[in-house]
Amino acid sequence: MKGPNSRKHGRKRRQLRLVARFHALQALSQMEATGQGLETIKEEFEEHRFGAVVDGARLAEADKEFFDLLITTAVEQQSRIDKLADSALVDDWPIDRIDPTLRALFRAAGAELVDSSTPPRVTINEFLEVAKAFYPEGKEMPFVNGVLDHMAREERPSYFSKDGKS
Questions:
Q1: Is the pTM of this model over 0.90?
Q2: Could you say which of 46, 56, 67, 125 is the most buried, measured as most Cβ atoms within 10 Å of its Cβ?
Q3: Quick one: pLDDT at residue 96?
Q4: Which CATH number is 4-159 given?
């Protein structure tokens, strides 16, 4: 039986992972824009972003191991992840032609889909939350949801079958 401390721990873990996803999107965007390498970007985020104090406000902590997993997998498996995203996009708008923030989001989410035990629907929902921070008007949400759903179904089809887990 789960008690109040278990629920509190679960909420804290979810929050740490949500912040890690948010930072993974930022890190991948920054890497693409600046040409910085993986180790440089990991170090910058771990030393200057997670829990840092900026203008008197403390930034949120993140699950550093999960952040590392997302950005490392996104870099090491970029070709595979981009193919997953491309299969969800129309032929004349491949991943290289879409908005850089969306590209980073699809790569971070794709990393979670290919190298994590997180159920795909959780990954989709969590990255929709991240997308809201970057697209507060919400008009991109159906597009993001559709691409992530397609990527998840292609990468982890057993979760979506009638006798699957989800």
A1: no
A2: 67
A3: 81
A4: 1.10.940.10
What is the token pair recorded at 120? 């795909």
Q: Would you state the pLDDT for residue 116?
A: 86
- Helix (H) / strand (E) element for 121: namely helix 120-134
DSSP-assigned states of every residue in the chain: ---HHHHHHHHHHHHHHHHHHHHHHHHHHHHHHH---HHHHHHHHHHHTTT-EETTEEPPP--HHHHHHHHHHHHHTHHHHHHHHHHHS-TTS-GGGS-HHHHHHHHHHHHHHHS--S-HHHHHHHHHHHHHHH-TT-TTHHHHHHHHHHHHHHH-GGGTSTTS--
CA nearest neighbour of 106 among 16, 45, 17, 28:
28
